Amino acid sequence: QQQVKQSPQSLIVQKGGISIINCAYENTAFDYFPWYQQFPGKGPALLIAIRPDVSEKKEGRFTISFNKSAKQFSLHIMDSQPGDSATYFCAASIPPKAAGNKLTFGGGTRVLVKP
Amino acid sequence: DTEVTQTPKHLVMGMTNKKSLKCEQHMGHRAMYWYKQKAKKPPELMFVYSYEKLSINESVPSRFSPECPNSSLLNLHLHALQPEDSALYLCASSQTIYGTGYTFGSGTRLTVV
Fold first, then answer.
1. What is d(CA A25, CA B29) in angstroms, rounded to the nearest whole number?
2. Is A7 exposed, middle or buried, given 0-12, 13-18 or 19+ CB atoms closer than 10 A?
3. In angstroms, what separates the C-alpha of B3 from chain A's closest C-alpha?
4. Residue B90's closest chain A neighbor by CA?
5. Which residues have a Cβ under 8 Å from the Cβ of A62 and sit 6 or more positions away?
């Protein structure tokens, strides 16, 4: 059961353009929504994260928009650069109890920024 | 030190071999994780250690055996693996079990022949 659905699977954007990746979730218990960037042969790196009490968060060229009622959130990459070419994963987690903080990942989006 | 270090980076093993993957962090994080990632797929959680105790096992086959010798180290012992176990094995840590912002290592690329 895929609890976090991510789209599109791949994306090609020109240098300077805007990359937009969308995620949707069903579990209303999710309370933390991070985005990870992964380059080939490397582990995922935390890019930016948001909690449901905030509708938008911006860090540099990266912005998360969050729509709690629609159970959707998205990543916008402004002024996309060739160095942004990577796979992006959205994720979500529920408040951990004693057991640990489990991340549920979306399927990933491969972004290619053309120079 | 803000890194999670995994060794080895690459490992090729036969189906009858026994090998171990090692993960180390010196950030004082008290939660550590093993994830498995197949090509072009998202990471999938295998195990969670919280304060050196196994707290989550995502129904992982017994041929994978985790161990947390101390708060900085996490091992994954491998025995009698199958070719379909070939994947990138990622270790991660977070400050506590409530820790946001996992830090992932670069992973061990495992090939089972």
1. 28
2. middle
3. 11
4. A43
5. A35, A47, A48, A75, A76, A77, A78
Phi, then psi, of B63 in degrees rounded to 5: -70, -15
CA distance to A10, A77, A82, B85, per residue, from A85 (Å): 11, 11, 6, 28
The DSSP output letter for A95 is P
Question: pLDDT truncated to tens, each residue of chain A (115 aa)?
Answer: 568 999 999 999 999 999 999 999 999 888 889 999 999 989 999 999 998 899 999 999 999 999 999 999 999 999 999 999 999 999 998 876 655 678 889 999 999 999 9
User: B102 contacts in A (CB within 8 Å)?
Assistant: 34, 44, 46, 101, 103
Residue range B7-65, pLDDT digits in tens: 999 999 999 999 999 999 999 888 899 999 999 999 999 999 988 999 889 899 999 99
**Chain B residues with CB-CB distance to A100 below 8 A:** 31, 33, 48-50, 55-56, 97
Distance from CA of A115 to the nearest CA of B (A): 24
How far is the C-alpha of B95 from the C-alpha of A25, rounded, in Å? Answer: 26
Let me know the angle formed at the C-alpha of A45 by A43 and A46, rounded to the nearest 5 degrees.
150
